[in-house]
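Tutorial, part two.
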Amino acid sequence: MKNRTTTTPTSFEFIPRAYRPDKPRTFGLTEVRGPYYSTYGTRHLADVLEVAGRWVDGVKWAGGSFALLPREQVRAFSDLAHEHDAYISSGGWLETVLRYGPDAVEHYLKEAKEVGFDVIEISTGFISIPTSGLLRLVEQVTGAGLKAKPELGIQIGSGGDSGVAELAAETKKDIGDLIDRGQRALDAGASIIMIESEGITENVAEWNTSAAASIMNGLGARNVMFEAADPPVFEWYVKNYGNEVNLFVDHSQVLQLEGLRQNIWGNKSTWGRIANPSPQD
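Running the prediction step on this input gives:
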């Protein structure tokens, strides 16, 4: 059987695998974390993309870490990702820039484009912003020629890897409000909605799988990307929603996730069970 996962043959292509479309993909996206918890440079990223670039759709900086590097190094990351047909996303930081006024936001978007960013994440975990304000930011980002990716979640105070007890004391947001805000952001021009894992699968005593299901059903699988930088989490999403679910993982997990997506390998509950038929010619 011919391997339909990529125009360039893989080794052992005679072994069938679950269907995966070629890049550029619009579903089944894998976005990976840039330097933050793991400090690495372009040589390490080049190795990752050389080995697994066909399965990486985007690279996301985290926590404003790009602001600690010289501009030429940030641009080098962008150029390398683009060479492998992957986009560069800012990750959360716009909420920091907002504190310094509209001129700072305008300057931020201008420089983001200059260093090769394609997507600007608009994270709302640490700030209280009305939906109207979120929509204005979406419009400002798209007006600057960049893609807007709001990050929404149900956990107040998410985004900084706070402890379980600390977050529990902050309480949670209403899932219906998240879905409404997400849909309005999509209608305003957002390219996709990133779903914050805290309060769902991260820093919780028990996973809130009903919240994930409500988001998936309310916004549509192709309109959302779930944070899943932990193998049991991304396995759960693929097992429950199939290999077309959009996921954000650590850069070290690309092949593990892709092996699961293609039914090459898995754990006890997923080994040999992931299926997706190829489109008919």
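Residues 121 and 149 are 5 Å apart (CA to CA). In part three we will examine how such features are distributed along the chain.
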